[in-house]
Specification:
114 residues; SH3 type barrels; 2 domains; 1 helix; YjdM_N; Alkylphosphonate utilization protein; mainly beta; N-terminal domain of TfIIb
Length: 114
């Protein structure tokens, strides 16, 4: 019997075929076998609460953050609109413009989705 790939969303091993689609019974995600290679390239970024973030989401800062080269930092509760997700090798996966600070990269564990 052919070994089916794990679910790309929840990594469940209990996937099954339904016609030309693969289905995960645990999270109800459906995808075609051709999509499996494309899903591996998707950047998955989750906020401090574990909520999945997408490009264009609005987030709120959950901790006072110091900014290098600036006397002021980013305060708790600062709302940031229209984030962009980037591949950051040091954990800074969120590219955004913070009011009063400017363009900056943030770590995902310091924000929550609005």
């Amino acid at each position: 019997m052919e070994q089916l790939p794990n679910c790309p969303k929840c990594n469940s091993e209990y996937t099954y075929e339904d016609g030309s689609l693969l289905v995960c019974p645990e999270c109800a995600h459906e995808w075609s076998l051709n999509d499996t290679q494309e899903d591996e390239d998707i950047l998955v970024v989750k906020d401090a609460n574990g909520t999945l973030l997408n490009d264009g989401d609005d987030v709120t800062v959950i901790k006072d953050l110091k900014v290098k080269g600036s006397s002021s930092g980013i305060k708790v509760g600062t709302k940031i609109k229209g984030i962009r997700l980037v591949e950051g090798n040091d954990g800074h996966n969120i590219d955004c413009k913070v009011p009063g600070v400017g363009a900056i990269k943030l770590k995902q564990e310091f924000v929550k989705k609005q």
